[in-house]
């Protein structure tokens, strides 16, 4: 329809009035305030990025999918490398122990409600099979007693590490002894408290225990605080955590008030020496000793306790741990003497035990990292570090793309008989490299790769296959140059 000149002028005037009217201007779409974005939620991001899932068949026990397992393993591998620097030796300990062990450690009395019980199958004795003068099979009877014992799933690694320390004699020259353990732990959290990765029933802890001389306590705590600062700086969490000293609980603790006061004073001196600000949580210590907690904030401002350093005089006493030292009375007080007569006298001294976890629960820290990075992972942690896209599906292009991927992964060709050579079994880079050879437009594949969070998007076309190179944006690189660049990014935590 063609409007008359009058109607066109009227429409133009109305248009000008709407444009210049402040009331109308404020209603225009472009002048509206941007909608407030919801804070990142690790549960939603974990689902979108295929990191983990949960199941009604095992509530509170997250199942890590391949992408999540990659991140989990990289965090653990990073910690393992730092263990060399900080003098820890990794051990592997059982998941279940007899309840008599938990009674000895004090957990059965003070922590039973949070533990899972495990009972073996009850098996009747085969009385028809008889040996010996009394007509019974003693060996089988002992086996039955062993099998019928009640066990507990471990909520902590400390009793197992005490068993390791007690298994051999130690001199004061051996200390400090530092054990580390990544074994899974189980704690019976109430179902209403379970939440994603932050509150779970089965989790992994970068658990460590230091057995040291009394005179070494402050130095070990300071070194552990340095360890925490180093790790959290690499994880880009260096400014978002605080330190809190948790003191003796009012109820459910073991040991004397004098022992607790001595332990708390040691932690206070170490905190003061660290130069970092700290606060006190009265009565929030573990039942066996005071602790320093590292507390992180999530994207909603909610605080989560992650790393922890706990001082313990009680478990060494309960497990009768000791080491031999000169002038044992002075040694036990953390003092020294130059008296030759006293130094000539060797005797047993009780070590001090320090519990420490730098990441804390790996699951909980991973939840905080997911939200902190908002799904945009640094390259070294990214489960999707690189993808190779083919321009077309011709055999030379697809074959060269596959060769590039093998070079980036460090996979070497098989022998003529189809078996891997000894040389090909080593040299894998650990990089995460995918490939998309589908017959779709390159632009579509590039957009999908960026949307999926790949760190590097590599392209292979006819010319790349001919020149044996790969395209990274406007750059043309050899596969070896690309691999070395990626490894440098991993090594420097980019």
UniProtKB/TrEMBL annotation:
<dbReference type="InterPro" id="IPR033728">
    <property type="entry name" value="ThrRS_core"/>
</dbReference>
<dbReference type="InterPro" id="IPR004154">
    <property type="entry name" value="Anticodon-bd"/>
</dbReference>
<keyword id="KW-0809">Transit peptide</keyword>
<dbReference type="GO" id="GO:0005759">
    <property type="term" value="C:mitochondrial matrix"/>
</dbReference>
<keyword id="KW-0067">ATP-binding</keyword>
<dbReference type="GO" id="GO:0006435">
    <property type="term" value="P:threonyl-tRNA aminoacylation"/>
</dbReference>
<keyword id="KW-0547">Nucleotide-binding</keyword>
<keyword id="KW-0436">Ligase</keyword>
<dbReference type="GO" id="GO:0005524">
    <property type="term" value="F:ATP binding"/>
</dbReference>
<keyword id="KW-0030">Aminoacyl-tRNA synthetase</keyword>
<dbReference type="GO" id="GO:0004829">
    <property type="term" value="F:threonine-tRNA ligase activity"/>
</dbReference>
<dbReference type="InterPro" id="IPR036621">
    <property type="entry name" value="Anticodon-bd_dom_sf"/>
</dbReference>
<keyword id="KW-0496">Mitochondrion</keyword>
<comment type="similarity">
    <text>Belongs to the class-II aminoacyl-tRNA synthetase family.</text>
</comment>
<dbReference type="InterPro" id="IPR045864">
    <property type="entry name" value="aa-tRNA-synth_II/BPL/LPL"/>
</dbReference>
<dbReference type="Pfam" id="PF00587">
    <property type="entry name" value="tRNA-synt_2b"/>
</dbReference>
<dbReference type="InterPro" id="IPR006195">
    <property type="entry name" value="aa-tRNA-synth_II"/>
</dbReference>
<dbReference type="Pfam" id="PF03129">
    <property type="entry name" value="HGTP_anticodon"/>
</dbReference>
<protein>
    <recommendedName>
        <fullName>threonine--tRNA ligase</fullName>
        <ecNumber>6.1.1.3</ecNumber>
    </recommendedName>
</protein>
<feature type="domain" description="Aminoacyl-transfer RNA synthetases class-II family profile">
    <location>
        <begin position="66"/>
        <end position="378"/>
    </location>
</feature>
<dbReference type="InterPro" id="IPR002320">
    <property type="entry name" value="Thr-tRNA-ligase_IIa"/>
</dbReference>
<dbReference type="InterPro" id="IPR002314">
    <property type="entry name" value="aa-tRNA-synt_IIb"/>
</dbReference>
<keyword id="KW-0648">Protein biosynthesis</keyword>
């Amino acid at each position: 329809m063609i409007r008359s000149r009058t109607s066109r002028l009227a429409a133009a005037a109305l248009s000008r009035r709407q444009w210049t009217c402040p009331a109308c201007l404020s209603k225009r779409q472009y002048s509206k305030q941007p909608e407030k974005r919801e804070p990142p939620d690790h549960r939603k991001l974990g689902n979108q990025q295929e990191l983990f899932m949960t199941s009604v068949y095992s509530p509170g026990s997250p199942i890590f999918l391949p992408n999540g397992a990659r991140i989990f393993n990289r965090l653990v591998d990073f910690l393992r490398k730092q263990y060399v620097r900080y003098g820890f030796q990794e051990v592997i300990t059982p998941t279940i122990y007899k309840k008599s062990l938990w009674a000895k450690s004090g957990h059965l009395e003070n922590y039973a409600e949070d533990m899972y019980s495990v009972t073996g199958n009850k098996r009747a004795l085969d009385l028809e099979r008889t040996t010996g003068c009394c007509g019974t099979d003693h060996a089988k009877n002992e086996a039955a007693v062993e099998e019928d014992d009640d066990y507990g799933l471990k909520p902590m690694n400390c009793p197992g590490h005490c068993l390791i320390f007690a298994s051999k004699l130690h001199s004061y020259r051996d200390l400090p002894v530092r054990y580390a353990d990544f074994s899974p732990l189980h704690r019976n959290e109430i179902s209403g408290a379970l939440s994603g990765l932050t509150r779970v029933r089965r989790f992994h802890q970068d658990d460590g225990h230091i057995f040291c001389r009394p005179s070494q306590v402050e130095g070990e705590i300071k070194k552990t605080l340095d360890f925490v600062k180093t790790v959290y700086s690499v994880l880009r969490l260096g400014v978002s955590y605080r330190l809190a000293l948790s003191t003796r609980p009012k109820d459910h603790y073991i040991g004397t008030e004098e022992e607790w006061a001595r332990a708390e004073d040691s932690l206070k001196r170490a905190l003061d020496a660290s130069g970092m600000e700290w606060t006190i949580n009265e009565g929030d210590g573990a039942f066996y000793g005071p602790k320093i907690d590292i507390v992180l904030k999530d994207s909603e401002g909610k605080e989560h306790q992650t790393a922890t350093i706990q001082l313990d005089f009680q478990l060494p006493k309960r497990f009768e741990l000791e080491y031999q030292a000169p002038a044992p009375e002075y040694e036990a007080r953390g003092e020294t003497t130059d008296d030759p007569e006293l130094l000539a006298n060797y005797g047993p001294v009780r070590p001090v035990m320090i519990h420490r976890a730098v990441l804390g629960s790996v699951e909980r820290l991973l939840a905080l990292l997911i939200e902190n990075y908002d799904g945009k992972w640094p390259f070294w942690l990214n489960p999707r570090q690189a993808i190779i896209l083919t321009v077309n599906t011709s055999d030379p292009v697809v074959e060269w793309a596959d060769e590039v991927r093998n070079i980036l992964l460090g996979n070497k060709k098989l022998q003529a008989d189809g078996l891997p050579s000894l040389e090909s079994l080593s040299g894998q880079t650990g990089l995460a490299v995918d490939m998309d050879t589908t017959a779709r437009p390159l632009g579509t594949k590039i957009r999908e790769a960026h949307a999926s969070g790949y760190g590097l998007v590599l392209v292979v076309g006819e010319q790349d296959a001919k020149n044996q190179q790969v395209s990274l944006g406007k750059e043309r690189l050899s596969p070896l140059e690309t691999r070395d660049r990626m490894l440098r990014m991993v090594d420097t935590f980019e």
